[in-house]
From TrEMBL:
Biased composition (Basic and acidic residues): 31-59
Annotated segments matching region Disordered: 17-74
Keyword Signal applies: yes
Signal peptide (from-to): 1-20
Domain of life per record: Bacteria
Keyword list, A-Z: Signal
Native species: Bradyrhizobium macuxiense
Protein name (Swiss-Prot/TrEMBL): Uncharacterized protein
Length: 74
């Protein structure tokens, strides 16, 4: 009988941390109540249209490797 009691106590002590890990508390917000910002397609397109076009094409290697071998890098 003593062995059964000791085994029950050991199982209870082992199961307690596992039970605590399995519980999900109400500490966070639900995904259903979380509001996402509305995307306004019209405003997005108008913002893209306001970006000016570059006058010259940007060359990331222009400083290190000129396109024309006779030209010196800046």
């Amino acid at each position: 009988m003593k062995n059964v009691t000791v085994a029950a106590v050991v199982l209870a002590l082992i199961a307690t941390p596992a039970l605590a890990q399995g519980r999900r508390g109400g500490g966070g917000q639900d995904k259903q109540t979380e509001k996402k910002p509305q995307i306004d397609e019209k405003a997005y397109k108008s913002a893209l249209d306001r970006i000016p076009e570059p006058k010259e094409k940007y060359d990331p290697w222009g400083m290190t490797k000129p396109a024309d071998p006779t030209k010196k890098p800046k």
